[in-house]
Amino acid sequence: MVHALEEIHRLLKPNGFLIDIHPVAEHSSVEIHQNGKIDLVSQLEVSQWCVDFQEADNALTEIVQHGMFTVEEKGMFDTLTYYDSPKEMGAAFKESIHKYVREAEPIDEEVSQVETLAVQAEEILQTASNEAKLALREKDHISRLKPM
User: Fold this and answer.
1) CB-CB neighbours of 113 under 10 Å
2) Residue 146 and residue 127: Cα distance in Å, rounded?
3) Segments making up each domain of the chain, as ranges
4) Would you give the distance in Å from CA 34 to the centre of its chain?
5) For every one of its 148 residues, what pLDDT tens digit does the chain have, with 9 covering 90 and above?
6) 3-state SS assignment for residue 125
7) Coil/strand/helix, residue 17
8) How far are the Cα atoms of 31, 133, 146 from residue 12, in angstroms, in the given order?
9) What local confidence, expressed as pLDDT, does residue 108 receive?
10) What are the distances in angstroms from CA 104 to CA 91, 98, 100, 139, 147?
């Protein structure tokens, strides 16, 4: 990641800047939204994603420490991804796990967790109103970095 950021630094036009957006290195929440209320289904815990997001934080810290960029502004925000059904959510999570898994990493635990989450969401949605929405809440970092 540091190499990619160094390359971005090299390619930026004068007076250009880098906007970095990436998830926070923590687990995401699966929620049901209905009638102005949010019910927590569970946490989605994919440890490899947290490792990758922490590596992104570390890479940004390293390029700032090396004097390549300064952080002009930074903040955090939530991203909500809505799903039409627990089945759709489960399929999307499994696809993401398989897409980002590294060679020789075990994924059975994460896939099993996704299946459990889908069942839990289905059970809650059975007693929910027709307007209930299933959502994944992720916290994200956003930074504006100026090259030095």
Assistant:
1) 17
2) 50
3) 2-147
4) 23
5) 889 999 999 999 989 999 999 999 888 999 999 989 998 888 887 777 778 889 999 999 999 999 999 999 999 999 999 999 999 988 888 888 777 665 555 566 666 777 888 888 888 888 888 889 999 999 999 999 999 9
6) helix
7) coil
8) 40, 41, 10
9) 67
10) 22, 12, 12, 28, 38
Cβ–Cβ < 8 Å for 2, 61? no
pLDDT score of 17: 95
**Under 8 Å CB-to-CB from 33, ≥6 apart: which residues?**
132, 133, 135
pLDDT of residue 102: 59
DSSP string, 29-94: EEEEEETTEEEEEEEE--HHHHHHHHHHHHHHHHHHHTTSEEEEEEEEEEEEEEESSHHHHHHHHH
CA-to-CA dists, residue 27 to 7, 12, 48, angstroms: 30, 33, 11
The answer to whether the beta carbons of residues 24 and 147 sit under 8 Å apart is: no
Q: Which of 71, 84, 99, 87 lies closest to 5, judged by CA? A: 71
